[in-house]
Amino acid sequence: MRIATIYYNHIVAGELLETDDGEYRFTYDSLYVKQYPLQCITFSMPVQQQPFISNRLFPVFEGLIPEGWLLDIATKTWKINSNDRMGLLLACCKNCIGALSVKEKEANDEK
């Protein structure tokens, strides 16, 4: 299981979890829901308490992962399989252009 903290404009927006079964869950942070109820990270994922669940990485996060020659560099540099979408997201998307950024949450990190 891998967990990432998702930031929107440097504010914790929520958590993305990849289970050992390959299921993805995105849950907005409860404080974010209270303070920014109208500021969704994408229109297809409105701010809500309930998690979003999918068998594939959500398109908003998939779109952050590099493509083409930049993907080739990333997979070779970090030795990540190009099919490991969560691994690529965690390695490549810490400081993205745009509002979203991703930081891996370690097992001992507090919420």
What does this protein look like?
The chain has 111 residues and is of the alpha+beta class. It contains four helices and five strands, in the order βββαβαααβ. A five-stranded antiparallel sheet has the order 4-3-2-1-5. Helices cover 26% and strands 26% of the residues. The chain has a domain at 2-64 and 94-105.
Summarize the structure.
The protein is 26% helix and 26% strand. It is built from four helices and five strands; from the N terminus they run E-E-E-H-E-H-H-H-E.
Which range best describes the helical content: under 10%, 10-25%, 25-40%, 40-55%, 55-70% or over 70%?
25-40%
Q: Helix count, per DSSP? A: 4
Q: Give the overall form.
A: globular
Strand order of the largest sheet: 4-3-2-1-5
| End-to-end CA span | 16 Å
Share in β-strands? 25-35%
Give a quick account of the main beta sheet: strands, pairing sense, barrel closure. Answer: 5 strands, antiparallel
Rg, alpha carbons = 14 Å
